[in-house]
Amino acid sequence: MSSWKLRDIIVLSSLSVVFAVVYLIFLQIGNVLVGFMGPMGYEVIFGIWFIVSIISAYILRKPGAALLSETIAGTIEVLIGNVTGPILILSAFIQGLGAEAVFAAVRYRYYNTAVLMGAGVGAAVFSFGWGFFQSGFAALSTGLVISMFIVRVISGAVIAGLLGKWISDALARTGVLRSFPIGKAAAQSANQQRTSVKQ
């Protein structure tokens, strides 16, 4: 954390608060989907519960950003009314750890689409492993469990990875993130494109 600046902490905290509210809203959406689709209802949108880890890591590009943002968001979600209780904080920690593991695997050097989608997949895999025991997936049929796993992985890659990248890039284009790594990378890419056009 020695390389973290106050602005990094403020951005990470702000994102965690915003997405804690988003998570709580999507819990209700998930409940509706379960009424129509059974256990698969949550899996379709499960990637939304990993998204703050992807966005925070992509914007800040610092070790620990994915893990911290997800854990803080889970903590705030409990404080503002998620009835799951404190166990949700552990679930959020495990989700963040899954995303963090992918960024760590590339030594925090790459934040391209493939890595961001991979981080979403990592969060999905870690969370499903935890959910298998904590949520009693073992009582379900093997075919259903495998299908749930596949859908969660896809949701993690698409909703957390791709949508997280799109949201972050949209914010970067406004200029509000120009002093952060994502903004500097976008400016560098734009300069390279201009240079290429001139040549």
UniProtKB/TrEMBL annotation:
Keyword Magnesium recorded: no
TM stretches of this protein: 9-29, 41-60, 72-94, 114-133, 145-167
Keywords: Membrane, Transmembrane, Transmembrane helix
Domain of life, source organism: Bacteria
Name of this protein: Thiamine permease
